[in-house]
Sequence to fold (528 residues):
Amino acid sequence: MNIWFKTSAGIALLSLCAWSLAADPLQVRSMAAACASCHGTAGIALSGMESLAGQPKDDLLKKMLDFKSGKKPATIMHQLSKGYSDEQLEQLAGYFAALKK
Amino acid sequence: MKRRQFVQTVSSASVLGAMGFVSGCATGSGDKGPKVVIIGGGYGGATTAKYIRMWSDYGIAVTLVEPNATFISCPISNLVLGGSKSMSDITTPYDNLSSRHGVKMVRDMVTSIDPDKRTVKLAGGSELAYDRLILSPGVDFMWETLPGMSKPGAQDKVLHSWKAGPQTVALRKQLEAMPDGGVYAMAIPLAPYRCPPGPYERACQIASYFSKAKPKSKVLILDANDDVTSKGPLFKKAWSERYKNIVEYRPKHALTDVDAASNTLKFEFNDSIKADVLNVIPPMRAGDIAVKTGLATANKRWCEVDFLTFESKAAPNIHVLGDSIQIAPAMPKSGHMANQHGKTCAAAVVALLTGKSPNAMPIYNNTCYSFVSEEDVIHVASVHQYDAAKKTMVTVAGSGGVSSAANELEGRYAMSWARNIWADTLA
Fold:
């Protein structure tokens, strides 16, 4: 009984943490919409700019983290990516990965 | 119970969505759902219209009031002055806003707003009711600061070309008609004004044209500011390396009047200057309709807003965005920024009309490209996020910056930026 209580309390605490970390989907949508000015509405760009919709999350996240660290050369993305936390970049990567190509 | 009261009551009970009030109704509108009226179809207003429709699942009726038949972009319009782009390159129709997104386009001007009755009157005589009104009227000019510009014909001869359109074409004609060896003089107002790097890009584009077509001619920049207000070292490098004998930059030239008849600029502390072609960018303020409605509370020039919703601090249920607002620190008055305002405002208005809380932590960016020749470009970029303690937008420390040097790759990106933001705003 005691063990059960501790375990369930632990699970409750874990899910509470997960809940507080989970981003508000509408907030992430608004954050991602800021990218659309260059990368197209819903992540589908016209020629000359990269479409983000439907790209694998890990690829998108790696690219943005590499822009941020300076590992991947860029004209502008190294400066813009530094405006976002790693957590925000992960939310953006997840958002665009889930959009239809 | 009036419909508007009903909407409010329902919103506050947060059951609007649950009632299926905002449901898929692809082309619009009818009289059931909430009504939004948007004044101004530029980067700010058009973006807001499209995104309110998308993000309300086409349940909120949006009417966009815009006097012009087509969207003509200020960004890239300096290239029309330089001769490498045409007016058709910077013109986009409004058709997609109505056909794809069900925005009701009304080609008219708003002459007055009644914030109590929540109605707007149009020059054409009709009246529109709103639950939320969004103003994105851009800038209008403070002609009263330049008395000579009120003389008959003065504004037809001395152009601003600071709203892309007929004046862009007319200034290009003046430049083409100017003899080789002539002087083009541009007066820049004190910041803040629409598009901080715009005048300096314009100097580059006109110098580029002169260097090819009339190389003995001069571009004289008379700036009221103490120094170049944006991308300063990069513009100065372009002038000294690319247009050495053409461009001359003179700071601290505060324009006090213009004599259009004799093509003369008069300054507070400097000698008057005559030139063959005058281009006066006058001091500016929020669009007339915002000023007239009493929304321009900052120095009677700019409209103060809540940056979470872009709701006016002077009038409830009225939102203002784009160039008309009292900007947050380091926030430029740019088309890109107006597009970003538009999405933030759209999300907030959809939330407010469906009984939800607006996003408490907006974050967005500015990206601005300037052409220093026909091909080579420099940029400035910044990321802005909401600061809950300061209740304004601030730039994120460590983010943003400018190009290391003018380059052709960014020239290609700049045109791609233009195509993409036009589509994001209008298609």
